[in-house]
Amino acid sequence: MLAEDISGSTNSAPSVTQMRTASVDVDSLIVGRAIKSPLHDQHGVLLLSEGAIITEVFKQKLRDRDIKTIEVHTEDANIISTTHVVQNLTRAQGHSSHHEGIDSQLQKTIDDGLQFVTNEGPASRDSVRWHGKVGYEQSTREVIDTKGKEQCEVLDQLMHSSLSAESIDGFQLSRTVSASLSSLRDDFDCVNASALHLSEDASLARHCYRMSVLSMSIGIEMGLNEENVCRIGVAGLLHDWGMLKVPEHIRNPQRPLTYSEKLECQKHVMYSVDLLQKVQGLPTLVALVSYQVHEQMNGTGYPRGRRGSNIHLFARILNLAHHYVEMTTKLPYQDAIAPYDAMLKLFAGAKQGLFDPSVLRAMLRAQSLFPVGSLVMLSTGRMARVLRANGDHYTEPVVQVIQDEQGQTLLPDSEKSVIINMSEDNCYVTRALPILHGPEPIPAPHFLKNPNSLKKLQKQEA
Predict the structure, then answer these.
(1) Beta strands in 158-218 (DSSP E)
(2) Which three-class secondary structure state does DSSP give residue 69?
(3) Which PANTHER family has this protein been placed in (predicted)?
(4) Is residue 322 over pLDDT 60?
């Protein structure tokens, strides 16, 4: 037995479930360090007695039995695991005092009841113009593209000035958000398509702008009023400003970050809250939301590992938007993934408990499974661009054909560049394509295909 081989004892733990434990990788165990509490396996069988020393022989015994992680007392984890030691050292060097100060600031926000969303008055969604099966006006798209780039430039200037200025004009940010909301009301899908095409630039300003637009879209679909949608938009623009205080080689890496560099990067949350104190006219709620953007529903996020409803709704919205924007942005060492593939990863994350399902459903309504602005191949052999989401018809968006069956590119005003509402048509999506960058085309899963069309396809293949 394992216990006999390793410790020579088969005594079981008297109350393993009552211990505060932490999961530790076997490879991270530090040889030569002693444990303060007995160490048992998942069945309660004693592996090492109190005061025993971690040895290389002990680690090898665990590996031989394909044991990759063990549960140890929390105090022991901070002594015998390199991972936990590094994490605690990092916190000791700058997180602790920061956390205490920030927690005391934000606790008042929670005590004042701002952790809960008050959503009185008409829903912002009621004032949005829904265009149905109609294309974008070229002039409108050009105006929206220009506005988006201008707003990113203003945001970039405000971000960098926050490092030295004593105060920042928060009303300028509010005006930016109000302009975005006005554009969303006028043509919801066109604004989202325009924001998606900023994905080739990984700059911090564009990241925050895309998050702001996408999060506002989700908030609109969730039935939030104008004031709440604007609060989400402002938090989206501000939440990552602290990244400017993170070392350049970590903020804009040319390679994947190491574990210690990721911990350094996580400090940006505290830096952001500090910088937000300089922004004049900022709703108190924005600091709390910004602090919680990287928390996950299952408690695996940071900085506090909060769970479920202990995370503000607006932070849950921004967290989902953050993952989508990050996955669909090209980095120096990593291509962006196709928007459709990013949506599938969000589904997988929701199944793991990372995301709020109600937020994901709202994003589906706002974007569809094939996000607005992305490219798809149709069962007819034509290529199309997703023009508009289609409500609850997540897999059947409104698309505009941009290439015919022979591969000839069609101009938007061409007679063959038809607009198709796929919920009313007999064709279906066979492949999701990258936009400006990304991986090879991704086959659409069979569940997306219209049952009747799928039968026809199967007959043809037979």
Answers:
(1) 168-169
(2) strand
(3) CYCLIC DI-GMP PHOSPHODIESTERASE PA4108, CYCLIC DI-GMP PHOSPHODIESTERASE PA4108-RELATED
(4) yes
